């Protein structure tokens, strides 16, 4: 999944590359596009009075996964509002769960990656994403992929940056192996 809904998103391209690699390594892949979910900004009032069906559907998709690969753009040194809002909604208890259930995330594995036209490849945002995912009880693998100068790192949908092209398969492999070990 990518934390961007922008047309032509570098992070969506990176997420698609990761999904292709995961599938090639034998993983069953579900691609999630956040723009397919009409998520209002999280509020406790809305959660308790009219939990959005779109948030319930997104959470159900997360619950079904053993691992999640997240390609996050960097917005002002952190994660995108779209991604943070999706995590906030999916972290909320539903269907009689206790307040700390975190069924969409607890005990699952995450791999984090980012692509940015800047020189750091979204690295500052990945630090925040790692912290957020740890807070919702995910095990974030140590490897991460930050693709700098993303405007030159792709040829169409193909990742052509030589360093990222070496790191991404290792990251995907670690996520699959770790999720398999925990299952």
TrEMBL record:
Pfam families: FMN_red. Residues 2-150 form the NADPH-dependent FMN reductase-like domain. It comes from the Bacteria. GO terms for molecular function: FMN binding; oxidoreductase activity. One of its GO terms (cellular component) is cytosol. This is Flavoprotein. It comes from Hyphomonas polymorpha PS728.
